[in-house]
Amino acid sequence: MCGIVGYIGTQAATEILLAGLEKLEYRGYDSAGIATIWEGEVNCIRAKGKLHNLRSKLELVESPSQIGIGHTRWATHGKPEERNAHPHMDATLRIAVVQNGIIENYRELREELKAKGYVFRSDTDTEVIPHLIAESLKNLPSPTLATSPSPFFEAVRQVVGKLQGAFAIAVLSADFPDELIAIRQQAPLVIGFGQGEFFCASDTPAIVSYTRAVLPLDNGEMARLTPLGVEVYDFAGIRLKKQPRLLNLSPTMVEKQGFKHFMLKEIYEQPGVVRASLDAYFKADWTAANAEGSPVNLNIDGEIFSDLEQIQIVACGTSWHAALVGKYLLEQLAGIPTQVQYASEFRYAPSPITANTLTIGVTQSGETADTLAALAMEKERRQGKEAKYQVRLLGITNRPESSLGHMVPRIINTLAGIEIGVAATKTFIAQLMAFYALAVDLAYRQKTVTPEKLEYIINGLRQIPKEIEATLESQEKLTELLAHDFAETTDFIFLGRGINFPIALEGALKLKEISYIHAEGYPAGEMKHGPIALLDAKVPVVAIAVPGSVYEKVISNSQEAKARDSRLIGVTPIEDGEAAEIFNDLLPIANVDELLSPILTVIPLQLLAYHIAARRGLDVDQPRNLAKSVTVE
Ligand code: M6R
Prior knowledge:
Layout: E1 3-8, H1 13-24, E2 31-38, E3 41-48, H2 51-58, E4 67-73, E5 88-89, E6 95-103, H3 106-115, H4 128-138, H5 151-160, E7 165-173, E8 180-185, E9 190-193, E10 198-201, E11 213-216, E12 221-226, E13 229-234, E14 239-240, E15 245-246, H6 262-268, H7 270-281, E16 310-315, H8 317-332, E17 338-342, H9 343-346, E18 357-362, H10 369-382, H11 387-391, E19 393-397, H12 403-407, E20 411-413, H13 426-446, H14 451-486, E21 491-496, H15 501-515, E22 518-523, E23 541-544, H16 551-562, E24 568-572, H17 577-582, E25 585-588, H18 598-615
Parallel strand pairs: 16-17, 16-18, 18-19, 19-20, 21-22, 21-23, 23-24, 24-25
Antiparallel strand pairs: 1-4, 1-10, 2-3, 2-4, 5-6, 6-7, 7-8, 8-12, 9-10, 9-11, 11-15, 12-13, 13-14
Helix pairs in contact: 4-5, 7-13, 7-14, 8-13, 8-15, 14-18, 15-18
Bound molecules: 5-amino-5-deoxy-1-O-phosphono-D-mannitol.
GO biological process, one term: amino sugar biosynthetic process
EC number: 2.6.1.16
Organism: Cyanomargarita calcarea GSE-NOS-MK-12-04C
């Protein structure tokens, strides 16, 4: 939540900062602001609402400044008003600060500062930082420590030692116009190296148009950016030797490429995501007849999988839905009892573990505060126990360079590429693919399934990309037409059973988060235990009916909804017989094995949500109140 960016170099900073913030807007868009240094003064401009409001304001200001910091906000402390927008400044308006995260002890710091006569202009936790730096500069011994590169750096370093919480910060001062200080403590921050210009940002898309040489800071590190280069220190002020690496990301990957919205582009990228996952996870030459070793290559040492008795998965939102599909696969294929927990609940009431329990954290961003905290807690409670406990932690993430990647040594990288739309689509499909690979691998290790069955599953998976392509082609128009009918609908119900129950949840989540229509997902068999009371002609029901263990049951449950006058939309490969009679509308998919069906059934639901939101004229990529990375509890 919140995006920060900083620039120091030879070009005009304002446009670079704005372009960077545009790429970070997915992290929050309640307000935006930038601070630059020009003619010995800090020039700070802020605006409530989205970045275009800030742009309009900046058109009136001319500043060829070559240093600056910027921020796009997701409000935590203080309403989304201009006075709470970042950057925040000290009393003399010489120091400007942007922050992503939360300063947990800000109340006591604020009281201490107030007692010294400091006056606060905002309700934010961040405003304590510029005041503390000003105070620290005042009290700095002269001359400053010989080991410190500059008084400004030293003052900032001393303040960082007083801050508690998870944060990334960028600071500049009109009195030190050739320095920009960037700090990371449990919130992402990457440094970019250009030709005579240097950057810092919450995420790489903000700087990829200027440089691909990047250095992600680790927790407890701070960087001093000057026109001459970048120095990295730890919080004790010890200089560290660090080398940038080359980013595997091109500027076009973070463009819409002709699509109206990032979400639509990302929906269409899903066949490619499945192909990339198949290539990476499954051995091309493995066959049942030649079943030497696992068909899966996850690059994880087998130690964490030996004698597994139980798996517990922690995640939030869409990742939690992917984990529910994972549970089905892990239990039904590999025979391992699996629990899926909301990370925010698990942290305060963890299930008991044994030495043979594997804990998996799933987070596309790798920055979700609840998931990270749950894993940190899990890591801690395993410490001091025998080695078996300690190795059984696994992360599944789309951003291996994230905080999760730093925290958990064993990671399955999902291969979605960067996702910009706030509503997760292709990262969900990528997570499903990771679970298919993990379940097949464990089924092989546990010998719960014959090699022939594994080969059948893998061959089925290999057909999926072209089935998604066909679904996209056939559903684009159909879902757009349906969206026309449902643009004014206020409630929706999604039904699924078995492996498609999580898809019903995901369909409902997609719809509510981007169209603001109330939607609920239920296991179809549960309807009669209460929720059926909600149904009438005004409440459409989307039912996922895939041939297999629960097809007849879902059809019966759909009948029950129909009897209450609901308009029924069927996501199903069966277009005739009973299905044709019951469903008012069909969203047909290919007839694949039930076990593989979630990768297909979710596609029409993503498209339906997209078209309804677009039809309602809503901001599909940046829905209200949301942010892509939820880095607060
Ligand atoms: O980055 P994560 O996968 O940990 O994010 C978890 C949720 O915040 C996320 O899935 C959220 O629910 C999305 N907006 C869903 O589209």
